[in-house]
């Protein structure tokens, strides 16, 4: 068979069974691939909306962005454009987006319009991740009566003094970011399978903001978990809310439940009986 005939056969096979152009995104993260057959052409990408969300979740220290893209024919680099190619996401139709990790192109995604909305502005995404990764104060539980003991069928008072915002300053994408965590609710675990959620941090006696009555004599290990809401500002600018919360589990303390028993005692001012 001549070389011309071999080339002709290869072209026919390519038309019948499909072809794959070179990857734009490198070996690790390939770009969308077009497959042409006698039945038509389809385009698939490295990521769908779901797989890209999984990728982002598994890489908490990085920031991912997406933009609708077309690819330069000479360099293969993605460029923003208003008429990107269509692609398929299951039975839905999407368009091709370029995906960047910390500003570097890493592949392409086939995203529907709804999928693309989950990728919020870069700094906000990274701030939310850092907010959840930072250590925030545990709430120290105080119980009254003091001394690690209380009475059965008695209203026991619980409170914590952790009721003020805490701020930390970090550097993200070269910017100075202040992140503030504010206690917004408290989840009280009393140790006997009962719990309560309050906006109040409780107060000592005589206030009774948070109380619990134990009906059994078994010792318990109560604790209070703190739910923090977050906000941030970049380079001293306006404060913005973080669309997430962080729950910090408090340390348990030992608490004995005692039963009071009546006991006759002599009045010190009363003379002894004859």
Describe the structure in your own words.
- By secondary structure, the protein is mostly beta strands.
- The chain is 15% helix and 40% strand.
- It has helices spanning 3-17, 49-57, 113-116, 122-133, and strands at 33-37, 40-44, 47-48, 64-71, 78-80, 86-89, 92-101, 104-111, 142-144, 149-151, 155-159, 166-172, 175-189, 195-198, 211-213, 223-234, 240-248, 256-258.
- The strands form five sheets. Strands 3, 4, 5, 6, 7 and 8 form a six-stranded mixed β-sheet that branches.
- Strand 4 and strand 5 (78-80) form a beta hairpin.
- The longest helix has 15 residues, at 3-17.
- It is elongated and about 115 Å long.
- It starts with a helix and ends in a 16-residue tail after the last strand.
On the 0-100 scale, what is the average pLDDT? 80
Q: Say how many strands there are.
A: 18
Q: Portion of residues in helices?
A: 10-25%
Q: Flag low-confidence runs.
A: 3-31
Which class of secondary structure composition applies to the elements? Answer: mainly beta
In short:
The chain is mainly β.
Blueprint of the fold:
Elements (H helix, E strand, L loop, with lengths): L2 H15 L15 E5 L2 E5 L2 E2 H9 L6 E8 L6 E3 L5 E4 L2 E10 L2 E8 L1 H4 L5 H12 L8 E3 L4 E3 L3 E5 L6 E7 L2 E15 L5 E4 L12 E3 L9 E12 L5 E9 L7 E3 L16
Parallel strand pairs: 3-8, 10-18
Antiparallel strand pairs: 1-2, 4-5, 4-7, 6-7, 7-8, 9-11, 11-15, 12-13, 13-14, 13-16, 16-17
């Amino acid at each position: 068979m001549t070389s011309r005939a071999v080339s002709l056969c290869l072209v026919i096979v390519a038309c019948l069974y499909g072809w794959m152009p070179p990857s734009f995104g490198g070996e690790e993260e390939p770009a969308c691939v077009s497959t042409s057959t006698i039945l038509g052409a389809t385009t698939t990408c490295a990521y769908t909306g779901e797989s890209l969300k999984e990728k982002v979740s598994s890489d908490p220290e990085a920031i991912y962005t997406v933009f609708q893209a077309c690819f330069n024919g000479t360099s293969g680099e993605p460029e923003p454009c208003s008429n990107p190619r269509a692609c398929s996401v299951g039975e839905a139709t999407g368009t091709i987006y370029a995906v960047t990790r910390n500003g570097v192109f890493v592949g392409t995604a086939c995203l529907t319009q709804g999928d693309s909305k989950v990728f919020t502005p870069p700094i906000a995404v990274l701030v939310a991740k850092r907010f959840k990764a930072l250590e925030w104060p545990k709430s120290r539980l105080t119980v009254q009566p003091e001394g690690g003991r209380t009475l059965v069928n008695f209203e026991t008072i619980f409170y914590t003094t952790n009721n003020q915002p805490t701020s930390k300053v970090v550097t993200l994408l070269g910017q100075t970011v202040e992140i503030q965590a504010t206690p917004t609710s408290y989840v009280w675990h009393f140790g006997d399978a009962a719990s309560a959620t309050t906006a109040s941090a409780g107060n000592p006696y005589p206030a009774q903001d948070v109380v619990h009555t134990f009906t059994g004599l078994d010792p318990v290990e109560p604790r209070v978990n703190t739910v923090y809401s977050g906000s941030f500002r970049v380079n001293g600018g306006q404060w913005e809310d973080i669309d997430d919360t962080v729950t910090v589990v408090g340390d348990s303390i030992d608490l004995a439940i005692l039963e009071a028993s009546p006991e006759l005692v002599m009045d010190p001012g009363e003379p002894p009986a004859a």
